[in-house]
Amino acid sequence: MEDRIATDNTADMCACCHHKNTPRSGKEQRQLQSRINRIIGQLNGIKNMLDDNRYCGDILIQIGAVESALQSLGYVILQEHLQTCVVEEVRKGNEDIMAEAVELIKKLK
């Protein structure tokens, strides 16, 4: 019974996506994967710069680039969430989804 309660509570936490899955087209998936792969490449570059004892200013510039890339990715995902999950829930009459959306926006900064 406790397992069922935990599962039910988990589903309730994500009001927009009952199965915590957002269907994306193959093109959308490739674009997101491409972005994250670039970010991973940038992070590996920073690691190599640290290993090579590169100039602090150069490393900081790269850190800023990674932060910007992550922020941009976050906004793409947020836009997708608002246009799909949130719209769907509002149409169903679930106005509580707006509070969740505001909290997600706050977490992005």
Brief summary:
The chain is built from 4 helices and no strands. It has helices at about 1-15, 25-50, 55-90, 95-109. Helix 2 packs antiparallel against helix 3.
Write the topology of this structure.
Elements: H1 2-13, H2 26-51, H3 56-91, H4 97-108
Helix pairs in contact: 2-3, 3-4
Features:
79% helix, 4 helices, 109 residues, Methane Monooxygenase Hydroxylase, Chain G, domain 1, elongated, mainly alpha, single chain
Structure description:
- The model is unreliable at 1-15 (pLDDT under 50).
- The protein is elongated.
- It has 4 helices and no strands.
- With 109 residues, it is mainly alpha-helical.
- Helix 2 runs antiparallel to helix 3 and helix 3 runs antiparallel to helix 4 (97-108).
- It is 79% helix and 0% strand.
- It has one domain (25-108): Methane Monooxygenase Hydroxylase, Chain G, domain 1 (Up-down Bundle), CATH 1.20.58.1000.
- The longest helix has 36 residues, at 56-91.
